[in-house]
TrEMBL record:
It comes from Lentinus tigrinus ALCF2SS1-6. InterPro entries: Gti1/Pac2 (IPR018608). One of its GO terms (molecular function) is DNA binding. Residues 258-277 have a biased composition (Polar residues). It comes from the Eukaryota. This is Gti1/Pac2 family-domain-containing protein. Residues 121-154, 242-317 are annotated as: Disordered.
Length: 329
């Protein structure tokens, strides 16, 4: 039994690359691209006219080449004169839902903006309705797109091709696929001709992941002299509490380095984490029980008689002077 579809494409395909075809995955798109490269299917090299835009139907497939600065044989962008939702990634394709053209609210807002601009050119215009807030068209189309880089000749930069396919509702289940057309199902796509345009995005994402996996170098000459507090190294990990073991800025490290070095002389390192997770170390193991000795300053060296043992209690005259400053409540 012969196939219900022609063995060769009809001579008049209208304004589309293919009039009735459903693309399921990247392989189907590559088959269509190869058919265009071999001249079996036409490449769209111009914008659609107003009448062609109105004739868009479910199953239409367009392959067009992206070109910058209106180069001959290419388009800067694809325009079909319809409003679409934001793109959604499903499998290998980006999908767009058709939205209604203009709502009554948009018409009123547009008239209000025009009137306000006439009365007060410097007044701030009201915020327009966002695209995602626009209702979907009841009998609208769904657009799916896919892009590829085409390597035609060695030594030449690749060309960028796009495929745009339209369908409505669930009729894609009734549309023909590549295997239904003999001139498409017999096509064998050679290796290395088509590469996904998403490869650049994937490589860029890997660069970001590599950058996030390595800590950036810390600036400041005081970082190497910084030593974390001993209890920050020996205290148990507590869930929900961020770690305090991180370098301080260069502006604060110089002022606190002496304090950090002084605190390291106490026997805090002898603390052992408790067997129960989530318990804090005893205060006695973190703060020394004895009197703290202030760090020696190069500007004010400690004299032999100025240690902790040279402290003298207040005299009776000192207490009388202090009591005279107290306010009676």
């Amino acid at each position: 039994m012969s196939s219900p579809f022609a063995a060769r494409p009809v001579d008049n395909l209208g304004h589309a690359t293919h009039p009735a075809l459903h693309l399921r995955d990247a392989r189907d798109a590559h088959v269509v691209f190869e058919a265009v490269r071999l001249g079996i299917l036409p490449l769209i090299t111009r914008r659609l006219t107003a009448s062609e835009r109105e004739q868009l139907a479910s199953g239409n497939v367009f392959v067009w080449e992206e070109a910058e600065h209106k180069q001959v044989g290419g388009l800067e962008r694809w325009t079909d004169g319809r409003r679409w939702s934001q793109s959604r990634m499903r499998g290998d394709y980006l999908f767009y839902e058709e939205k209604i053209e203009t709502t009554p609210e948009e018409k009123e807002a547009k008239a209000a903006r025009r009137a306000r601009r006439t009365l007060d050119p410097f007044a701030a215009p009201p915020a327009p309705i966002r695209r995602q807030d626009r209702p979907s068209k009841p009998d609208g189309l769904t657009k799916q797109t896919y892009s590829t880089h085409v390597h035609t000749r060695r030594g030449e930069p690749p060309r960028k091709w796009h495929v745009v396919a339209y369908f409505s509702g669930d009729d894609y289940t009734r549309l023909p696929v590549v295997e239904n057309y003999e001139y498409l199902r017999n096509i064998r796509v050679p290796e290395g001709i088509f590469t996904s345009a998403k490869g650049n995005i994937a490589r860029f994402g890997r660069v970001l992941e590599d950058a996030d996996s390595h800590e950036p170098p810390h600036a400041g000459r005081d970082y190497h002299d910084w030593t974390p507090a001993p209890w920050a190294l020996t205290s148990p990990v507590i869930r929900g509490v961020p770690s305090v073991d991180r370098p301080m800025s260069s502006s604060s490290s110089s002022s606190s380095s002496a304090t950090l070095r002084t605190s390291s002389q106490y026997s805090v390192g002898q603390h052992r984490p408790s067997s129960a997770m989530g318990t804090l170390p005893r205060l006695a193991t973190v703060v020394p029980v004895g009197p703290l000795t202030p760090p020696a300053s190069p500007m004010h060296p400690t004299s032999p008689g100025s240690g902790p043992g040279s402290y003298k209690p207040l005299t009776a005259e000192d207490r009388r002077v202090l009591n005279s400053f107290r306010l009676a409540l």
